[in-house]
Amino acid sequence: MTTASAPVLEIRDLSVSFPTETGTVSAVDGVSLDLAAGEIVGMVGESGCGKSVTAMSLAGLLPGSARVTGSVRLDGTQLVGARESALRRVRGREIAYIFQEPMTSLNPVLTVGRQIGEVLQVHERMSRRAARARAMELLTLVGIPSAAQRVDNYPHQLSGGMRQRVMIAMAVACGPKVLVADEPTTALDVTVQAGILQVLRDLRDRLGTSVLIITHDLSAVEYLADDIAVMYLGQLVETGSRERIFARPAHPYTQALLSAAPVADPVRQRHRQPVLLGDDLPSALDPPSGCRFRTRCPLAFDRCATEVPAQTAIGDGMAACHLVRPDGTGPDVRTADPSEVLS
Amino acid sequence: MARYLLTRAWQSALTLLLSTIVVFVGVRALPGDPALALAGEDRSPEALEAIRRHYGLDQPLPVQFAQYVERMAQGDFGVSIRTGTPVSSMLTTALPVTVELSVLAILIAAALGVGAGVLAAVRRGRPAEWLANGLALIGLSVPHFWLGLLAILYLSVATGLFPASGFVPILEDPVDNLHHIVLPAVILGTGLAAIIMRQTRSAMLDSLSSDYVRTAKAKGLRPRAVITRHALRNSLIVVVTVVGLQLGGLISGAVVTEQIFGLPGFGKMTIDAVFQRDYPVIQAVVLLTAAAYIVINFFVDLLYSVIDPRIRVTGDPA
Question: In this protein, which residues make up the domain named ABC transmembrane type-1 (chain B) (predicted)?
Answer without folding.
Answer: 95-300
